[in-house]
TrEMBL record:
Source organism of this protein record: Clostridium boliviensis
Membrane-topology descriptor: Single-pass type II membrane protein
Protein's name according to its UniProt entry: Signal peptidase I
Main location: membrane
Cellular compartment(s): Cell membrane; Membrane
Superkingdom assignment: Bacteria
Amino acid sequence: MKREENMPQEPFNWKEEIISWIKIIITAAVIAFLLNNFIIANSRVPSGSMEKTIMTGDRVIGSRLSYYFEDPERGDIVIFHFPDDTTGKTYYVKRIIGLPGDTVDIRNGKVYINNSETPLEEPYLPEPMEPEPDAHFEVPDDSYFMLGDNRNYSADARRWKNKYVKKKKIIAKVLFRYFPSIKKLH
C-alpha cells in the first residue's frame, strides 16, 4: 500500500520515547523481582558436596512454590538457609534424608531410617561412604536432616552445630541445573 505523500509526519518525541523505555524497564524489573522472590530460586553451587548430582560451579533453579502445596520428601534436593548462620545469608544445597519424627542412624558407611535393618537405597552416591563412628539423629517435628551426595567430602548435618533444618528455612525444591548444561535433577 502506498503511503500518501501529503500526510503530515509527527516529529520524533524524545520525551515520550524515554518514558516508554522507562516503563518497559520498570515492568521487567518488577517481574524479575516477583519471580526471584516468590516463584523461583536461582543458586550457584560453590562446593563439591553434591557431586556427581550437582558439580562445583553448577547453577540450579528451584521452585519456591513446591512446599506451599506439599511437604518435603526424603530424597528431595533443596536450597535452604544454613542453620549455623545466624545472619540467614548463607544458603546450602543438600538432599533431604530425615523427615520430621524420623530417627537416622549412620553405621558402617550406611544410612538407616527408623531402626530399619536395611540401609537406605541411595543410587545417587558417587562412591561408598567411608565408615566413621556410628551416629544417631532424632529429627524434631517440623525439621529435616540433610546430607550431601558426596558424603566423604560434604560439610552436612553430621558436622553442623545445629543438626536440623526447620521447614520454614527451606527456600526451594531444586528442579534442574541450567548451567553449564540443562539437566533435570532428582
